[in-house]
Amino acid sequence: RAPPSGTPAGPTPVSSSSVTPSRILRLRADRASPPVLFACGIWGPGEARGREWCHAGTRCRDSSHSIATVFCKCSPEDLATAYNNRGQIKYFRVDFDEAMDDYTSAIEVQPDFEVPYYNRGLILYRLGYFDDALEDFKKVLGLNPGFQDATLSLKQTLLDKEEKQRRNY
């Protein structure tokens, strides 16, 4: 998906362990370290895309391993946090499709974790998919009404959507 011309850069995604430029948002920081990512099968030795790596760091020889088997030592909360954090790395690399895949995986693992909805919404906003971004920001606020960044992003998305409609593009 190519972003429409003139699409604003938008805010920065939120990591479970990052410090954002103008605010500090720490969520589940105890679970955000690389050992958790490795233990959850998200990262394998020497490989950033390690779904085929078991939690022990050995390559899975059995092709019938399901994701549930590979990730059996992780809690859903740890796995969702790991996917979200890997998605943020991909976002900063401007690999939006891959980042959205990770945010969606985090949502599938833990549907009540608001941060990946917010981060996915930011990408959708940047790409000009305002209706989809609005859905994600509304979901965030349904899960956490006090999430101020989501409130601001929702308002900005509504304004930009109206502007896009006004200009007929």
Automatic annotation (TrEMBL):
Residues 1-21 are annotated as: Disordered. It comes from the Eukaryota. The keyword Cytoplasm does not apply. InterPro entries: TPR-like_helical_dom_sf, TPR_rpt. Pfam families: TPR_1 (PF00515), TPR_8 (PF13181). PROSITE patterns: TPR, TPR_REGION. Residues 7-21 have a biased composition (Low complexity). Keywords: TPR repeat. TPR repeats lie at residues 80-113, 114-147. PANTHER family: TETRATRICOPEPTIDE REPEAT PROTEIN 32 (PTHR47059:SF1). This is Tetratricopeptide repeat domain 32. It comes from Equus caballus (Horse).
